C-alpha cells in the first residue's frame, strides 16, 4: 500500500479526486478509507460537483440523512405549531406548512446547493433557539415574511464581509468548550424531561425510564465499539420497539399529500394560508429585533457544528470543512425563498445532520442529497412524520444524536486550567441569560485576557480584541433587551 493511502494528509494537490480515489478494499479498516476520502476531496465552490467525479455515496451517508430527517421533521413541526397557536390557525395549517418547508429545503438546498453547487456550505435547517421566541414574535406584531426578508438582508451582509468566520476564529477553545457543554447539558436534560413527562401523562411512567435506561446501555456499547455514529437509527429503533412492546399508544394520522407552493395562497389574502396578507412597515419594525437576534445567534451555532468536523476529521481535510460564510449565505437565501413559498421556519445550520455526519466521518454532499430525498418522501407520504414526532423517537434521536455529542465535544475541548476557567464562566453567563449572551460576553473577556489564557491577547489586533467582540456583545445585548429575553427587564419594544 502506498504512503498516500496510509497517510491521508500526504496527498498530491495537483491530482483530481478521481485520480486519488482508492477502493475501500485497499485499506486496513473502513475508518482509514473514510479518512482518505476526506483528505482527497476538492469541492468546487459555487460550481457543479458531480458524484463520482467530486464525491461518492457511501452507506455511512444514510445515518446523518436519517438523523437529519427525524430532527428537521420534529423542529419544523415545533415551529409551525407555535405559529399556529399564536395566530389561531388549525392543525391542517401545521401539516401543510411543514410539507412546504421540507420540500423547499430538500430540493433547493439539500440537493441543489449543498449537494451539487457548494459542498462546503452546510445544509440550511432550523434555528432551534428561536423556537421559544415564535409566540413573542406574533404578540409583538411581527410577520413571518417581514422577518424572513430582514434575516436575509442581515445574513447576506454579514456573509459578504466574512463576519461569521471572523467571529468563529475569535472564539477560543475554552469559550467554545463551555458553550458546547452548556448546550449539551441543557438540551439533554430537556429531552429526558420531555420523555418522562410524556410517559407520566399516560400513567405509564415506567416506559420513559425503561426507554432511557436501555438506550444508555446501547449508546455506551456503540461508543465502546467505535460505532457511535449509528446511535440515532439504532437508539430510535430501540425506543420504538420498547415503547410499543410496553403498551404505549400510537396511531398514524398524517395522510399522503403534496405541498401548496403558491405564494399567493399563503400571503396574498387574509382568507387563505397564513391569513395575514402582505407585511406592512409596522410588521418590519416589529420583526427587526428578532431578525437581528436570529442572525447574531448564527455564529455560535455554526461554530458548534464545525467543531465536530474538526474533532472527527483527519489532518489534511481542511478542504471539506464547513465554510461558515458560505453556510451563512445559504441560510440567508433559504430563509427568504422558503418563506416566500409559504413556509414559516427560522433557519440556521442543520445540526441534526452535521453532527452525526461528522461523527460518521462523512463530508456534506452525498448525505445531503440523500437527506433531501428522504425529506421529500416523508413529507409526501405523510405517515413517517407521525413516527418522527412521536415522543420516544423524537426525544431519543435528539438526545443521542445532538445533545450528548455536544456535551462530549465540549469536554474534549477543555484541555487546560485556563480553558476550564473560560469554559466555566461561559457556562455561568449562559445560565444567567442564555448561551448567546454567554458566548458573546466570554469571548469579549477572553480576547482581552481578563479570563483564560493571559498570553492570548498579545497575538490579537485591536479590532480582534475590542472592536469585533465588543460590537458582537452590544448587538446581542441590545437585541435581547428589545425583545425581553433578559429576565426581570421588560421588553423595550
Automatic annotation (TrEMBL):
UniProt KW DNA repair keyword: no
Protein name as catalogued: DUF3360 domain-containing protein
Pfam assignment, any one: DUF3360
Taxonomy, superkingdom: Bacteria
TM spans (from-to): 65-88, 100-118, 130-155, 167-185, 205-222, 229-252, 276-298, 364-383, 389-410, 422-445, 465-486
Gene source species: Shewanella corallii
This protein's UniProt keywords: Membrane, Transmembrane, Transmembrane helix
N-terminal signal peptide: none
Amino acid at each position: 500500500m502506498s504512503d498516500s493511502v496510509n497517510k491521508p494528509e500526504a496527498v498530491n494537490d495537483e491530482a483530481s479526486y478521481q485520480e486519488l480515489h482508492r477502493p475501500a478494499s485497499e485499506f486496513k479498516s473502513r475508518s482509514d478509507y473514510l479518512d482518505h476520502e476526506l483528505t482527497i476531496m476538492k469541492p468546487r465552490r459555487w460550481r457543479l460537483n458531480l458524484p463520482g467525479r467530486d464525491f461518492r455515496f457511501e452507506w455511512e451517508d444514510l445515518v446523518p440523512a436519517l438523523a437529519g430527517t427525524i430532527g428537521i421533521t420534529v423542529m419544523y413541526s415545533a415551529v409551525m405549531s407555535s405559529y399556529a397557536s399564536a395566530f389561531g390557525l388549525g392543525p391542517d395549517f401545521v401539516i401543510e406548512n411543514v410539507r412546504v418547508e421540507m420540500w423547499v429545503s430538500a430540493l433547493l438546498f439539500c440537493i441543489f446547493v449543498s449537494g451539487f453547487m457548494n459542498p462546503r456550505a452546510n445544509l440550511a435547517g432550523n434555528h432551534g433557539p428561536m423556537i421559544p421566541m415564535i409566540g413573542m414574535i406574533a404578540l409583538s406584531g411581527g410577520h413571518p415574511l417581514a422577518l424572513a426578508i430582514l434575516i436575509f438582508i442581515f445574513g447576506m451582509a454579514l456573509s459578504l464581509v466574512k463576519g461569521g468566520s471572523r467571529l468563529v476564529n475569535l472564539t477560543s477553545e475554552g469559550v467554545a468548550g463551555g458553550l458546547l457543554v452548556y448546550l449539551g447539558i441543557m438540551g439533554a436534560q430537556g429531552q429526558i424531561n420531555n420523555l418522562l413527562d410524556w410517559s407520566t401523562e399516560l400513567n405509564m411512567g415506567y416506559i420513559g425510564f425503561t426507554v432511557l435506561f436501555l438506550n444508555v446501555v446501547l449508546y455506551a456499547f456503540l461508543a465502546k465499539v467505535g460505532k457511535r455514529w449509528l446511535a440515532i437509527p439504532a437508539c430510535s429503533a430501540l425506543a420504538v420497539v420498547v415503547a410499543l412492546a410496553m403498551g404505549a399508544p400510537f396511531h398514524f394520522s398524517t395522510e399522503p399529500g403534496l405541498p401548496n407552493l403558491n405564494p399567493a395562497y399563503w400571503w396574498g389574502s387574509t382568507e387563505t394560508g397564513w391569513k395575514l396578507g402582505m407585511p406592512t412597515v409596522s410588521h418590519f419594525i416589529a420583526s427587526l429585533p428578532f431578525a437581528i437576534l436570529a442572525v447574531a445567534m448564527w455564529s455560535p451555532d455554526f461554530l458548534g457544528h464545525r467543531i465536530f468536523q474538526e474533532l472527527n476529521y483527519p489532518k489534511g481535510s481542511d478542504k471539506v470543512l464547513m465554510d461558515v460564510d458560505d453556510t451563512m449565505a445559504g441560510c440567508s437565501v433559504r430563509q427568504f425563498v422558503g418563506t416566500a413559498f409559504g413556509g414559516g421556519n427560522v433557519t440556521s445550520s442543520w445540526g441534526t445532520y452535521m453532527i452525526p455526519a461528522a461523527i460518521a466521518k462523512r463530508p456534506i454532499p452525498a448525505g445531503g442529497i440523500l437527506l433531501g430525498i428522504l425529506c421529500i418522501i416523508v413529507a409526501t407520504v405523510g405517515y413517517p412524520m407521525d413516527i418522527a414526532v412521536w415522543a420516544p423517537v423524537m426525544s431519543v434521536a435528539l438526545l443521542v444524536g445532538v445533545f450528548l455529542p455536544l456535551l462530549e465535544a465540549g469536554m474534549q475541548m477543555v484541555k487546560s486550567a485556563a480553558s476550564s476557567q473560560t469554559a466555566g464562566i461561559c457556562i455561568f453567563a449562559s445560565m444567567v441569560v442564555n448561551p448567546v449572551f454567554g458566548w458573546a460576553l466570554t469571548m469579549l473577556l477572553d480576547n482581552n485576557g481578563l479570563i483564560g489564557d493571559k498570553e492570548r491577547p498579545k497575538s490579537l489586533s485591536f479590532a480582534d480584541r475590542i472592536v469585533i467582540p465588543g460590537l458582537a456583545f452590544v448587538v446581542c445585548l441590545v437585541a435581547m433587551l428589545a425583545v425581553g429575553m433578559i429576565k426581570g427587564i421588560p421588553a423595550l419594544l
